[in-house]
Design brief:
Largest sheet: none
Helix content: over 70%
Shape: elongated
Distance between the termini: 25 Å
Number of strands: 0
Mean pLDDT: 93
Oligomer: single chain
Number of domains: 1
Order of helices and strands: HHHHH
Low-confidence stretches: none
Structural class: mainly alpha
Length: 134
């Protein structure tokens, strides 16, 4: 898929924000059930959900502006990359011990976040190149 056929940066950011908010609400509200299926600690699941809520609000605020601030997308991309790294490194370091379903959950959401991050990065670079060419 070429960057010309990708959704706009604003659309990708809205999708990221909605995903953060939905995942945050889900994790925070049903943490014990998720913990039971995944062997992830309930407090860990709930904390992850609570952390996602202000992040989702922030990304939505960035996306809703008529002009996206130059500093905002690198901050969002960096935060997303940190989320992906932590999703994989915490269980590898033994700080959480998920079962197979827990690993699938962690890797699945990390892959989704990494995909959004790559799209955000690609579109931000494309916009940056276009602005420099003008």
């Amino acid at each position: 898929m070429s960057s010309r056929s990708l959704p706009t940066l604003s659309t990708i950011l809205v999708l990221d924000a909605v995903a953060c908010l939905a995942m945050g609400l889900g994790l925070a509200s049903v943490a014990p059930a998720i913990a039971g299926f995944t062997d992830l600690p309930s407090a860990f699941v709930r904390a992850a959900g609570v952390v996602l809520l202000p992040i989702g609000v922030f990304i939505l605020m960035v996306a809703s502006r008529s002009e996206i601030r130059a500093w905002a997308v690198p901050l969002i991309v960096t935060g997303n990359l940190a989320w992906v790294l932590l999703s994989v490194s915490l269980p590898l370091a033994g700080l959480v011990q998920p079962n197979a379903l827990g690993w699938a959950f962690l890797l699945g959401q990390a892959l989704a976040v990494a995909t959004l991050t790559a799209l955000e990065h690609t579109q931000a670079r494309r916009i940056g190149r276009r602005a420099q060419a003008v």
